[in-house]
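Journal club prep, notes for RB
We'll compare a predicted complex against what the paper describes. Inputs for the zinc ion case:
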Amino acid sequence: MEGRCHCGAVRVTTPGPPPNVTECRCSICRRYGALWAYYPVDAVAIEGATETYVWGRRHLAFHRCEVCGCVVAWLPRGAYPECGINARMLEGFDAFAAERIVEEDASI
Ligand SMILES: [Zn+2]
C-alpha cells in the first residue's frame, strides 16, 4: 500500500494492507491519535525528510514530517524486527473498518 503525510513530503510503502490496526493508549500514542499497522522493518519504505521524537525507554523513535507534522511511523532504535506505520496515512485503507486492537496500558 502507498501512503503519505498531509503535504506529501513523506511517503510510505507497505507490502499490503494490515490485517488489523492497533490503537495504543499509552501517553504518547493517545495524543498522536495514531492507528498502528505493524510490519517487518525491512518490508516498508519511508521516503522524505522526517524529524524524530524519542522518550522513555528510548527503544523507538516516532517519525513525523518536518513540513506538515503528520506522524507517519515509529521505527525501532535497536535490533527489534518490527515497526509501526500510522495506518491513517495509508491511501484507500479504511482504518475504521479494520479490526482494531486496543492496547490498554495507559501507565506508560
Ligand atoms: Zn508532510
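Talking point for the session: Helices lie at 29-32.
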